[in-house]
């Protein structure tokens, strides 16, 4: 049997959906614990994977537009526009995901990313020229960009779609949307952020944004991880490089374990290697994503419940 939900305040229990027979297994959204940070993330790769779905298609189009403009500004050295487009990126407390809840106003991720953007102009320009416009390019090639940071960016850029999804789910389940909440939302049309107000449900005076459970991932269940990209890069490109042929063992093979030791011994960061791969191998990001997307599976009900039950 799957793990049972503990006696905690979740969306389902707080709004008494359980009285109508609803559990995590038969609702479309992730039934978050409303009293804590749920260590889960919105996965950009899942948005792309499920882009045949109308909601995911709209989200994917919006995010691609944002990324295209960010990379384009870097390629043109238009730092003013590049920094401006980052201003709307913040942690979204309303989702109850990651590490956002303890800061009631949300952390300005855009401010954190601005120096990273300026330092990565050359890399982003090359990625733009090579048509490797993906959030995975940011994550693999820029220092300080982690899996949960990409989730924060995704949620910020997709806020209007997730807010509307929440409203639609509330209508379906007869949940009262009693609080007005103002968000900055990203517009494809004018390539900028503008304020928009949504009427959302609340818990203890704080609004809630629902997330489709098929877009949820955790570090344990993540796909397209940095480690997976490095392993893919080694097997398909790096091990054939003249620079490391001296690592061959007696059997004539170069092993990834030995290569990692080589990097450590020579103080070469894996991010530096990843940047080199993205800059030199034109299709590596999309070839890698093509391979890994076939492995994407929805988190099981047991996986989702375990996240909300975790102390």
Largest sheet: 2 strands, antiparallel
For the record, the count of structural domains works out to 1
> Topology as H/E string?
HEHHHHHHHHEEEEEHHHHH
The percentage of residues in β strands lies in 5-15%
Question: How many E-type strands?
Answer: 6
Lateral arrangement of strands in the main beta sheet: 1-6
Overall structural class, as computed from helix and strand content, comes to: mainly alpha
Low-confidence stretches: 100-106
Amino- and carboxy-terminal Cα gap: 21 Å
- Summed up, the helix count is 14
What's the assembly state of these chains?
Answer: single chain
**Helix share, percent:** 40-55%
Q: From the alpha carbons, calculate the radius of gyration and give it in angstroms.
A: 21 Å
Shape: globular
SSE blueprint:
Elements: H1 11-14, E1 41-42, H2 44-49, H3 54-75, H4 79-86, H5 109-119, H6 121-129, H7 135-141, H8 147-157, H9 159-172, E2 179-187, E3 192-200, E4 202-203, E5 206-207, E6 216-217, H10 226-236, H11 256-265, H12 270-280, H13 284-293, H14 301-309
Antiparallel strand pairs: 1-6, 2-3, 4-5
Helix pairs in contact: 3-4, 3-6, 4-5
């Amino acid at each position: 049997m799957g793990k049972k939900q503990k006696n905690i305040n979740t969306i389902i229990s707080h709004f008494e959906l359980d009285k109508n027979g609803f559990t995590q297994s038969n609702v479309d959204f992730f039934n978050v614990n409303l009293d804590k940070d749920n260590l889960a993330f919105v996965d950009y790769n899942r948005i792309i994977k499920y882009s045949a779905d109308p909601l995911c298609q709209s989200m994917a189009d919006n995010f691609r537009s944002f990324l295209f403009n960010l990379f384009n500004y870097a390629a043109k050295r238009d730092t003013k526009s590049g920094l401006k487009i980052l201003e709307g990126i913040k942690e979204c407390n309303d989702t109850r995901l990651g590490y956002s809840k303890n800061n009631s106003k949300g952390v300005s991720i855009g401010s954190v990313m601005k120096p990273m953007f300026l330092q990565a102009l050359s890399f982003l320009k090359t990625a733009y020229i090579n048509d490797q416009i993906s959030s995975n390019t940011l994550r693999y090639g820029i220092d300080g960009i982690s899996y949960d940071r990409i989730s924060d960016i995704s949620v910020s850029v997709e806020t209007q779609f997730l807010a509307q999804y929440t409203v639609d789910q509330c209508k379906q389940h007869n949940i009262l949307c009693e609080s007005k909440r103002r968000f900055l939302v990203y517009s494809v049309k004018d390539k900028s952020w503008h304020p928009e107000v949504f009427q959302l449900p609340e818990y203890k005076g704080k609004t809630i944004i629902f997330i489709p459970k098929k877009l949820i991932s955790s570090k344990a269940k993540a796909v397209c991880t940095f480690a997976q990209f490095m392993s893919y890069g080694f097997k398909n490109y790096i091990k054939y490089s003249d620079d490391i042929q001296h690592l061959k063992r007696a059997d004539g093979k170069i092993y990834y374990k030995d290569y990692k030791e080589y990097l450590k011994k020579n103080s070469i960061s894996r991010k530096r290697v990843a940047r080199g791969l993205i800059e030199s191998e034109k299709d590596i990001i999309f070839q890698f994503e093509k391979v890994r997307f076939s492995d994407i599976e929805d988190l099981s009900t047991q996986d989702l419940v375990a996240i909300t039950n975790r102390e």
